[in-house]
Amino acid sequence: xxxxxxxxLFCAALFxxxxxxxxxGEVTLVPREDGAVEIGGRLLGFDGEVYRLDTIYGPLAxxxxxxxxxxxxxxxxQVARIALSGSPxxxxxxxxxxxxxxxxxxxxxxERGAEGRDRLFRLRLPDGGPLRAxxxxxxxxxxxxxxxxxxxxxxxxxxxxxxxxxxxxxAREAGLGDLSEPFRRRIVALxxxxxxxxxxxxxxxxAVGLSQAALLGLLTGEIADRSGPGGPEAPVTVHLPGHAxxxxxxxxxxxxxxxxxxxxxxxxxxxxxxxxxxVAADPTGLGLARVSALGDAVQVSLADGCGTRLLAxxxxxxxxxxxxxxxxxxxxxxxxxxxxxxxFLDYLATPAAQIAIRRAGFVDLLRDEIPLGRQGDRLxxxxxxxxxxxxxxxxKRLVATLGGAVRLSETFxxxxxxxxxxxxxxxxxxxxALEAGHFDGRRLILAGFAEGSGxxxxxxxxxxxxxxxxxxxxxxxxxxxxxxxxxxEVAGFGDLLPVMCDGGSGKAGPEQSRDRPSGDWxxxxxxxxxxxxx
Length: 534
Fold this sequence. Notes:
about 525 residues; eleven-stranded mixed β-sheet; five-stranded antiparallel β-sheet; globular
C-alpha cells in the first residue's frame, strides 16, 4: 500500500482560521485510485474541495478530488455561493449572458430569481437534479461594488473603471490585501464612452464630427449653443450618466472631461442606456453614452482637423485606437474562491465566452487580424504628415517591413503610471500563443510608434525602445516558447502612421489647426506598439 497520490496534506497550523467543524462524527476517506491507503478520523470541516480531519496522525487536509467519503457524518454535496456586486453594464447585460453560457458548457440548467436588489441564478443538474451553485448579481455602481466587498456582501466586484486609490487603501485596511495587484483583476470585455446626439439633432451638421475642443466646450458649457449654418440658435442640453450628486470621477465618462467639471445644468441619468434614450428624444441633446447601449441615439465621430474621424467600432475599441475605451473587469476580493467560481473565471477566456460577449453587444477579447490594406486612412494621413526627404524614405521602410503582414488586435499603450491592465493582458495573451506554437514558422514584428516631437530620428529611437520593452516583457512571460520556431522582431517608426494628427507638421491651415486635438489626446493615441504577423 502507499499514501494518497491525489491528496494534498497540510499541517494543522494552516487551518487555525477555518470555520467551525461541520460535524463531530467519524468518516473514512476512500481513495479513487486502487491500492492507496484509506484515511479515517473525525470530520473537522469540508468546504467543497478539502476535507479536514482529526486523525491518529494529527490534523490532516485531503483534496476531495482524489477520494470519496464514507460514513454517516459525510457532508452532502456542497452548493457554491458566489456574490458579485457593481456596475450595471456587467450586472444587467454581460454577466447574465456569461452565466447562461457557462451553465450550458457544464451541462447545467439555470433558474432565474430575485432577492432584494440581487438577481439570483441557480445552477443545477437537469430534470430537477441537485443544486450546484447560486450566483447573486447586485446591480448598483462600481463604487457600491467595492463597498459591498468591504462588508463581505460580495466576493467579486464588477467594475467599469479602474479602482480608485482610496478604495485600494480601504480594502487593505479591511484585510483584503492589495486589490491593485494584477492577479486581482480580470478584464472580461471592452466597451467605449462615445458622444451621442438625436437622429433629428438640431446641433448643426455633425457629419464631419466634433473636435476635442468643441466636445469639451459643449460638455462644460463654454459653448452654450451649436447652430447649423443659417439655422436658428440651438441651446445644448447635456446628458450624462450617474445619479445627481454622484461625482463624475466615479464613472468612465470622467475620462472624456479630463478632470474638468461638466456644465451645472447637465441632466444626470442612472444608467448609460437611459442617457442614450434621453438624448435620442432630445433634438438639442448631447450626451456621453456607452457604445454597447446606443439604442436610437447616434454616435458622433471625433475629428482632428486633418480629415481623420474616429468612431468607436469593434476594431478601434479592441486595438485601443479609439481614445475612450472602458474595459469591464472583475476585481477578486478573496484569494481563494469556491471551485465553481474559479471554473467560471477560466470559462471567461474560452472562445465560447467571447462569442457570448459579442452577442451581448460588447467587444470581445479574441485576437483579430487586420491587413495592411485596411489601414488606408492612416496611410493617407501618414503621407500628408510626412516630412520631406527622410519622412518619405521612412514610409517606404515601413511599407517594406509591414507589407504582406497583418496587424494583430493586441496593441500596447502605457497608462499615465506605466503599463496598465490591458498592457499586461496583451503580454499574457501573446505569451500564451507563443508557448502554444500558434506563431510557429512566422515572424512576429513589434512595431513601435511615437508622438510627433523631437525629430524623426529621435522619435524612431524612442519608438524602438518602447517596442523592445514589450518584447522583453513577452519573453519573460513566455518561458516555454520555442524561439527557434518563431522570429520575434522589433522596429521603430517614430511618428509615422499616426492615428490622429497632432499638428506637428505645420501643414494645416488656420481653420484646421484650430480643430486639431490637444497634444495630450493625440500623443496618447499615437504613442503605441503594434503587433504585426507575417
